[in-house]
Design brief:
single chain, alpha/beta, GMP Synthetase, Chain A, domain 3, nine-stranded mixed sheet, 30% helix
């Protein structure tokens, strides 16, 4: 069945031309839907006429958060091209692999990464288009200024590709998740029904939008609803708190990860934090320590825990904010247009309250990876996507992500989920950050090791940490050693790189 793709930006241009679509705090630029539609049209013309990009061609972008990024994304949609956002923390060889694997025909690059972009584009023999991110002179702005705008979206089906987003996997080469227009639209509909997306909403975006969470919670859905996106170039605790407190900006929705909420609540400006006006604050990407959650709830902000990943568009679960206290630690209930299962090692459904692997299905779930037949055979089973996350569901239909199954370790024949232990350790005075990993042990198979970052001006010993855990969990879960570090290694989404911790602890 053929379903035509619609152009949201041109629709809002017709409905609310003078409403602000996006504001960039870094550059001070602000565009109405009429102005955004014009720039998207010019970008589409630049792609088509100057760069000879046509329907089905792939375009890579290496950029900090910017309104330019969104313009390119919707310009690709307008001509049927596919945008490939890449992680700006990768090194040249990793970027070359992605650009070549994705078969990119052009490389758009933020001026912050000129040297890197030049090297990658030259190695892949594709044109480099420099972007300043502030509207000043650049190949990008010159291209838009000289382009003949394209206002009509090319005919395409809702199952056609819009994005290829590469996973931030900690081992092996990253895989390109094939994000279709249908995946994007279903994610929008899921968020409309669970997060009250309206034309009056104002979304603050500080998570990197090359990642599915920063892009689709709630940045792109805001434009789908006709609201306003406020773009921050990067996350900074003081700047983010200032933006959230600025009633002239009027932020109503934003997404963070546990690390960003941790950094903000440790900043002196947190004392002045005023949550009034904020309707939805979502936390995802990693398990949220309950003590940290309670700090924010104590400030009057009912954080909504959620769950998702690149392959799921990303939204799978969302916790209604009225249950923020009664269901602390839950990722919530499933999204309306998503199906879920929790299965054992044989792929059979487990009983309520039992832990198993989460499998998901629905319009917001990708159907395959780009050019990865082996991964497709392994991760997709009878139309279900295997998340690799350990999950359980209580009697009221609330889901709990216990941990990544790959982070789970087995001690004395018992499954141990590090997130459960970490949540307890965060209650110890003096702990700034903590991560638990399993290390090989001749007697028990594996034993727990706690990696701790101590709060500035405080002191902790191994005995302090281990004795604090004693009596608060089953004995087989008790960690046996402690390692102190200055900082936990994280990827760009805030997830702790436990593979790095394990390598450094051997």
């Amino acid at each position: 069945m053929y379903t035509r793709v619609h152009d949201w930006i041109s629709s809002h241009r017709d409905i609310r031309p003078d409403a602000v679509a996006m504001t960039d705090l870094y550059s001070g630029r602000s565009y109405t839907y009429l102005q955004m539609d014009e720039r998207v049209g010019r970008c589409a013309g630049f792609l088509s006429d100057d760069l000879k990009i046509s329907k089905g061609d792939h375009v890579a972008i290496l950029s900090q958060n910017s309104t330019d990024f969104l313009e390119l994304m919707f310009a690709c949609a307008r001509i049927g091209a596919v945008m490939v956002p890449v992680n700006y923390r990768l090194v040249a060889d990793e970027l070359k692999f992605i650009a070549e694997d994705a078969e990119a025909m052009a490389f758009f690059c933020d001026s912050d990464f000129d040297e890197l972009g030049t090297e990658v584009a030259a190695a892949c023999n594709i044109p480099l288009i420099e972007m300043q991110g502030d509207g000043s002179a650049s190949r990008y702005e010159e291209g838009l200024a000289n382009a003949t705008p394209i206002y009509q979206m090319v005919d395409q089906d809702i199952n056609d590709l819009w994005l290829i987003m590469y996973t931030s996997g900690t081992t092996g080469r990253p895989k390109g998740a094939r994000i279709t227009h249908y995946v994007m639209q279903t994610n929008n509909l899921n968020n409309v029904t669970t997060a009250k997306l309206t034309e009056d909403m104002v979304c603050l975006t500080f998570m990197p939008i090359f990642h599915i969470g920063g892009l689709n919670c709630f940045c792109v859905p805001t434009l789908f609803a006709g609201g306003k996106v406020i773009m921050m170039r990067t996350f900074d605790p003081a700047d983010t708190l200032a933006a959230l407190n600025d009633k002239k900006l009027g932020v109503t929705h934003f997404l963070g990860v546990p690390a960003t909420f941790q950094f903000m609540c440790q900043h002196p400006d947190f004392e002045k934090f005023d949550p009034s006006g904020i309707d939805r604050a979502l936390v995802g990407a990693a398990p949220m320590p309950v003590p940290l959650l309670k700090i924010w709830i104590g400030k009057g902000l009912q954080l909504q825990q959620g769950y998702g990943m690149t392959e799921t568009g990303p939204s799978v679960f969302s916790l209604p904010k009225e249950h923020a206290l009664s269901k602390v630690g839950s990722s919530g209930k499933k999204m309306p247009f998503t199906n879920v299962r929790i299965v054992d090692d044989q792929g059979e459904d487990v009983a309520k309250g039992e832990t198993g692997e989460l499998w998901v299905q629905g319009g917001n779930i990708i159907e395959s990876y780009w050019k990865r037949p082996e991964a497709n055979n392994k991760d997709f089973v009878d139309g279900w996507f295997r998340t690799g996350d350990a999950c359980l569901c209580d009697d009221e239909g609330f889901y709990y992500i216990v941990d990544r199954t790959k982070d789970m370790y087995i001690s004395g024949g018992e499954n141990v989920y590090p997130a459960e232990i970490e949540s307890i350790i965060y209650q110890l005075e003096g702990v700034s950050e903590a991560a638990v990993i399993g290390l090989a042990d001749e007697k028990w198979g594996e034993i727990g090791c706690v990696v701790v970052v101590v709060k500035e001006g405080m002191a902790l010993t191994e005995h302090d940490v281990l004795s604090f855990c004693d009596g608060k969990m089953a004995k087989f879960k008790l960690p046996r050693s402690v390692r102190f570090v200055d900082v936990l290694p994280r990827n760009t989404t805030g997830k702790v790189l436990k593979t790095v911790l394990r390598e450094n602890s051997q």
